[in-house]
Amino acid sequence: MQLVEAPAWSGATPDEVLAAVVDGDLIVVFLADRDTMKSPEQALLALSTLWEDVSGLDPVYHQELIESPEPREFRAVPAAVHGVQADLALGNVDFAECAAAASAEPDQVLRPI
Q1: For the whole prediction, is pTM greater than 0.70?
Q2: Which of 14, 29, 82, 112 has a CA between 20 and 30 Å from the CA of residue 90?
Q3: Which H or E run contains 48?
Q4: Between β-strands 73-76 and 109-110, what pairing exists: parallel, antiparallel or unpaired?
Q5: Sheet holding 28-31, edge to edge
Q6: Residue 27 contacts by C-beta under 8 Å, 6 or more apart in sequence?
């Protein structure tokens, strides 16, 4: 895990942050954005580095993927970050499973079990 604190990134979009990722081994990036700072729990935005934009795919060959694209992001409280990162790195779960667990919560935020 690497913490980057850079005021120059204030206001950056998730696309801009992901475009700057140069480590090909990263599976997930946790972003403290404006919503994080407003939230009482300071839920971070988890972004998949493996997410693929499906908008340009040919529907003849990729209809299922177009209709049900992989999730790109979800929110997680700081206490859940280590568990998410470890589970993804070990292959215990994939990003979609983490995102589904977050979306099952009333506030759409993943917490540790």
Answers
A1: yes
A2: 14
A3: strand 44-48
A4: parallel
A5: 28-31, 44-48, 73-76, 109-110
A6: 48, 49, 50, 85, 88, 89, 95
Residue among 82, 78, 57 nearest 68 (CA): 57
Q: In angstroms, rounded to a whole number, what is the distance separating the alpha carbons of residues 72 and 3?
A: 21
Structure tokens at 63: 């209809």
Residues 74, 29 contacting (CB under 8 angstroms): no
Per the structure block, which two tokens stand in for 3? 């913490």
Q: What are 56-89's pLDDT values in tens digits?
A: 656 666 666 556 667 889 999 999 999 999 999 9
